[in-house]
Please model this.
Amino acid sequence: MTQQPRSAAFDYNYDHFGLDHRTMDHLEGVSIGESAPDFTATRLDGTSVTLSQFRGKPVVLETGSVSCPMYVSRVEPMNALAFRYPDAEFLVLYVREAHPGQHINAHRTDVQKVAAARMVVDTEREGRTILVDDLQGTAHRLYGAMPNTVHVIDADGTVVFRAMWNDPPAVETALRKVLAGQDAGTVQSRFRPAGMATVLRVLRRAGWRAVWDFAIAFPRLARAHLPGRTRVVT
Model:
């Protein structure tokens, strides 16, 4: 993995969570029907890999980080999907820390980012292949730069389904359609917030600063996703 320019890495890897770091009402990046942008990332064993190396079978690509409660809450159901659908490749693109704190900081070096990625294997029993993005978030930006997006890519490398927030039941429906040679573009996803217990566990692990930053942003987060209702969003 190539060390990125310091200024670019600092710009992407924020020290404090806030809504100014992302767009809340839409998902940018590659669209359904477009070719999945290729990228180079690093496995936990240090070897480089490109997304195009997985061409020839469907790919489910999810973004996440150990400080993201939404991603952490999806690990178990997504591992179950990977077990049930061995004909598809399930990948996790490890991106910037969604909620950095004093214990799990914003990434400043490649070594630090890989160490954070290993935590999801050790603490959350992540069984899917983890691809660690570079410090500048090159691959992450291609796929929308949100903390927990999911894209289903067919064997020819075309994006056939995507969601701003990973919805495992919708992913399974889309994947079934892809494997059956059917159109998955009409599959609708639902926003399924992480439970409060997961949110607190993940944020406290990152550090109390992460808890504080989230508490400040929570009212706007709730309004942005679920107008008129109070539920946990992250």
In short: The beta strands are 40-42, 48-50, 59-64, 89-94, 129-132, 150-153, 159-163. The first strand starts at residue 40 and ends at 42. The two ends are 29 Å apart (CA to CA). Helices lie at 6-12, 69-84, 110-124, 138-142, 168-179, 196-206, 208-225.
